Amino acid sequence: MYYLWVFLIGGLICAIGELLIIKTNITSARILVTFVLVGVLLEAFGIFDPISEFAKAGINVPIVGFGASLAKGAIGAVKARGLVGAFTGGLEATAAGIAAAVGFAFLFGLIFHSKTKK
Amino acid sequence: MDEKKRNEAYNKYVNAKIPKTRPWPSLFNSFWIGGLICCLGQGINDLLLLWFPNMAEQTAWTYTLIALIFLASFLTGIGVYDRIGKFAGGGTIVPITGFSNSITSPALEFKHEGIIYGLCVKMFTIAGPVIVIGIVSSILVGLVYLFI
């Protein structure tokens, strides 16, 4: 049954993004930055985890989840290792996502050709 | 014509040229496609945990994100993702798949400018600010938590 929550929360977050695009003609880079910041703040104030409990992928798949894991990584690493954690934690927690996105973009960038510019 | 009037006239002209999207259908499409992408993520995650019962939840989640990123990158490569994107708007931008698409898409588009200066540099035109703001804010959050 939790798929309903995943669907509703995930859909809602995306619809909020679309609303921002319609109302302000904001670019997709700004949308992504805004949602990452929202995720960082939600995690920093401890609001993210209670939502994540029932929304699961609904809040973790949107880029909000990326922001939250950046903050979560930094907070965890600071608690474990002190000052150096502030610099290592964020990237450590999101390393897989960034590496996958860059790696696959490079691979498929080499293989495929742009379809939009024809 | 003074500058103010000219700017006004220009803004009017620009606003008239901006493609109008009807808000309700596009909101609805973002909602259900975005929701569906999240359900797909949840499905991949649950299947991984079902097939590999010994896998840690965090690891399964990481593989889920990698799978979604792979899928979005591939669909961008074959030109399908942008077609869904025209229809779904925010529904394809906000999920992590949109982040993947925002890296692969310019990489493909600027490939003709060379591997280094085209593909590798332009990859980060959209994702760059996201990563920069993300890292900076995570450092700040870490520093704040150091002192409380």
Helix percent band of chain B: over 70%
| Gyration radius over CA of chain A | 17 Å
Structural class of chain A: mainly alpha
Shape of chain B: extended
Q: Could you name the ranges of chain B where pLDDT drops below 50 across 5 or more consecutive residues?
A: none
Key phrases:
heterodimer; A: 118 residues; mainly alpha; 6 helices; globular; B: 148 residues; 0% strand; extended
Written overview of the protein:
The complex is a heterodimer of chains A (118) and B (148). Helix content of chain A is 85%, strand content 0%. Chain A is mainly alpha-helical. Chain A has one domain. The longest helix of chain A has 29 residues, at 83-111. Chain A is globular. The relative contact order of chain A is 0.11. Chain B is an all-alpha fold and 148 residues long. Chain B is built from eight helices and no strands. Chain B has helices at 3-17, 23-51, 57-77, 81-88, 90-93, 96-109, 115-122, 124-147. The termini of chain B are far apart. Chains A and B meet through helix 1, helix 2, helix 4, helix 5 and helix 6 of A and helix 2, helix 3, helix 5, helix 6 and helix 7 of B.
